[in-house]
Amino acid sequence: MRPGLIPLAFAIALWLASVVHALASPPTGVFLWYPEPGTPTSQDCDDAVARIGPSLEKAEAWLWGRAPFGSELEFYLFLTGDRMETTFSAEGDYDTGRLRLSGTVGDETTFELAPEDHPTITITGSFVASRDSSVVTVILRDVPSTNGPADRVTHYCRFDDETEV
């Protein structure tokens, strides 16, 4: 290759890498709520999954309000390309509803959420999920509360390749 073409080839390779990185897909599937305070590491999630033993069958039972006999108190997040639903939402909460994904750059996907119980409100947020980690973080921004709008950060764990789309 001629010396003048090396910088051009390098620039094209960097551009292609950034395009592929920017076109990463958001996390979709079913995820286990991380029950401990603080931000978990991938190992923390792996340990929680080993201890709790989540499954798609149990997640669906929790979604429909049927706590599986003998199970630990466990909660789940269901994510599709156009919907977010948690198994712990109470009536009037802001974390279940229609989802509009804005795009993924690196490990972060931004979105807008129209909560079912508050159809006139739009909550913005993001999912942070590295393919190299078991941790999926959901950030809801400016969620209304009695003390004024506040960000809500919740961590979830990947638990089974078959639960991700």
State the main characteristics.
165 residues, alpha+beta, Lipocalin
Short summary:
With 165 residues, the protein is an alpha+beta fold. The protein has three helices and eight strands. The N and C termini lie far apart (42 Å).
List the SSEs and their pairings:
Elements: H1 5-22, E1 29-33, H2 42-52, H3 56-63, E2 76-79, E3 83-86, E4 97-105, E5 108-115, E6 123-129, E7 135-143, E8 150-157
Antiparallel strand pairs: 1-2, 1-8, 2-3, 3-4, 4-5, 5-6, 6-7, 7-8
Walkthrough of the structure:
The chain is of the alpha+beta class and 165 residues long. The protein has one domain (26-163): Lipocalin (Beta Barrel). 22% of the residues lie in helices and 33% in strands. The protein has three helices and eight strands; from the N terminus they run H-E-H-H-E-E-E-E-E-E-E. The protein has helices at 5-22, 42-52, 56-63; strands at residues 29-33, 76-79, 83-86, 97-105, 108-115, 123-129, 135-143, 150-157. An eight-stranded antiparallel barrel has the order 1-2-3-4-5-6-7-8. A hairpin with a 2-residue loop joins strand 4 and strand 5. The radius of gyration is 19 Å and the shape is globular. Mean pLDDT is 82; it is low at 5-23.
